Amino acid sequence: MQTNNNYFRMKPYWSACILLLHVLIMSCTKTDNGEISEAKLILRYKFDSTQQRLNSKGEPSSLAAENAAQSPVINSMAVHYIELCPDASTPLGKGSVIYRGAETDIGGARAIDYAQAAFFGNYEVFFAIPLKDIPAGEYEWLRLEPVGMNCSVLCHVDTTVTITTDTSSNTIEIDQYLPGRIMGFTGYNTYIRDLQFQTGLLTIEGNRRQGFWGFETTISGEGFSEVHTDSARSPDGRTTVVNPLYATSPVPVGSGVITAAFVPGKLVITGKETENIIVEVSLSTNRSFEWTEIVGNGKWDPLKGEPVADMGIRGMIPVIK
């Protein structure tokens, strides 16, 4: 089961607040007198750890022999880009682009502005738009680009700590599973000022390309407690970006735009609808947090140097309700 845990406290930047207000307003369907207002297309999240795990081509995927993985709990996620595509040959950007988030060049190259991204949790509406504002037509495919994910994961800590005072020295052994929070960035390039954790601040002040992550956990035992914070980046090309249209409508290397067909069939928009169309965007978290094994115990041991290999969403099913 997913939960919405604001372990990472998102700063109240105005544009994020404006998008939140937009979603709240646009998802309303009735006026004060009970009459139906203009119909909207409403998109809401579903994070599913049991949904099929796919590779970048949209095919069923197993783990590499040298890797291990777990299914993280996504507490919240933000998207940067949403596009409706009529068919499998529609080039990226040539469908109906209904949302593009804020970008900035303050870090040098053009990048997604993390400070202005709006995060929403499981089963929450993350976008809504009047149907009359979308070009009429039949749309077979949905494309969206996640900016980042605020996730709960488990890490394994196996270490020895020496506690020294003015009068004594005591060594304790810690060997336990610990809860942690990780912020993973899967967008093409993101400008990040800082990541605010519950107990600490990780200052970035720069652009970070796809695959960057920040992590925090608290290591404790027998009177010892220490906050461990870390950050790194997965190698280029290792973040899974599912696109079953790779042969007819590819996305650029490094892009975070994922693609899937609407279910049970095409999304049909006339512009004359009187009722909302709700699409539940189901995203696979099935063993989506993946690392390269060093210890070889099937557990993520960050203090042993086990690098995060992949945090990409492992498939999408946009279900028309």
Would you mind describing this structure in some detail?
- By secondary structure, the protein is mainly beta.
- The protein has one domain (14-320).
- It has one helix and 20 strands.
- It has one helix spanning 14-26, and strands spanning 40-48, 67-70, 73-85, 96-100, 103-104, 111-113, 125-130, 137-139, 141-164, 169-185, 189-196, 201-209, 212-221, 224-233, 258-261, 267-269, 277-284, 289-292, 308-310, 316-320.
- The strands form five sheets. Strands 3, 4, 9, 10, 13, 14 and 15 form a seven-stranded antiparallel beta sheet that branches.
Annotation field: number of helices: 1
Instruction: Give the helix/strand class.
Output: mainly beta
- Tell me the Rg in angstroms: 21 Å
Q: Sheet bearing the most strands, described?
A: 7 strands, antiparallel
Oligomer status: single chain
Q: Strand portion, in percent?
A: over 45%
- Global shape: elongated
Order of helices and strands: HEEEEEEEEEEEEEEEEEEEE
